Amino acid sequence: MSSGPGRAVARATRETCRILLPFVLVLALLLTLSEVCRPALLLVGDVTVDVVDGKKAVGGAIAYAAAVASAYGVKACVVTAAGPDADLAVFSGHELHVVPTNSTLTFEHSYTWWGNKRKLRVTASPNMTLTMRHVPQHCRRARTVLLGPLTPQDLDAASFINFKQGLWDELIGFKQAVGLMAQGQQRGLDATGKVFPFKEPSPQLLEALGPRTSVFLSDVETDTWPPGQLDELAARSARWLITRGEHGAHEYANRESIHLPPEKVAAVDTNGAGDTFATAYMLALARHARSPGADANWVASRAVMHPQACKPQCVLDGIVLGSSYAQYRQWVRAKVESARHQVGELLAAVGPFTNGTQQAFAAFMTNYTLGKAKRVPKGTAGLAVGASVLEGYAAAFNGSQKVLESTIARLRSTFSLR
């Protein structure tokens, strides 16, 4: 008697599944497409006008980051503030979102007479702060975020660190990686716009720390800090990386410090080296590279090999050409190693023949010398010499036979002949 209600329940269940199945499939498809279309990289920061010896050039951490991303074939969402005088060509190929301002952040660069110390002065400012609200919705879901503040007021890094991820990202356990090129947060400006470094961590920097944050600074900003403070702050972050110029860099993570050896090159200008280092590191981290620090040092070496006047475009070209040359060198090295191996095998195969010939010649000379020493009749000596020659030929033949047998065995082994 219970079969009737049971069949009714089963029929209702099947009908419910039939109705819900299309909705579930559509939802799964939309979520899959959403994940596939997730941007790989979000770059946020001010593009700048850099004035060097009266000549203008494009600059800013975000410009160098875009150049590195282009070199690696990574399309990024780029959010920047710029005025009408900004050169935005370096962002070609990326998804660019410009917050319009009356003026572009402008730095005047000057150098000491011996040329190894740079001084900066801000001569124009957009007078606005970039925050997460300036970022389009789809760009907020990027796998990696790289922030490039240049002054304490031009970017609110904490708004990105404290950004709450969507429900879907929470469900799948997605953790957005944030790289903070924090040099700008360790700068102050005097009344004339002259840039000076802070002697201790700024409040803006401390607010931006978190388990997802990788912080990038140089020893210029951190060497004046109290002992132990760097380790303390690194423990509150995913990692810290401190670049040290020609001495490479140090990575602080998991309460350990690792030295990253530099790529030895002839340095021409160091402008942009830290920005390229940070970008290359975060990209290598995203693709799970074996040694992100080594990749970052190599890319930074491309930046210091060029004068500031051609940057950041020549940095992009240097990475592409350098990578191609590195691949070519690796190919040549593989070919040379293969040839060395083949020559070794050939020498091993010819060895028995060479040894047999040497032994035959030695036997011939020994018998010939003994024949002369005994002063036997010419006929007898001639027979002895003839016998020695025959022995030499026999040894050489045996050696040749061994070479042939060895060669045939190697061919069988190589081509799996039976």
From TrEMBL:
Protein name: G4518 protein
Pfam families, per the entry: PfkB (PF00294)
Domain of life where this protein originates: Eukaryota
Domain Carbohydrate kinase PfkB, residue spans: 237-310
Alphabetized InterPro entries for the sequence: PfkB_dom, Ribokinase-like
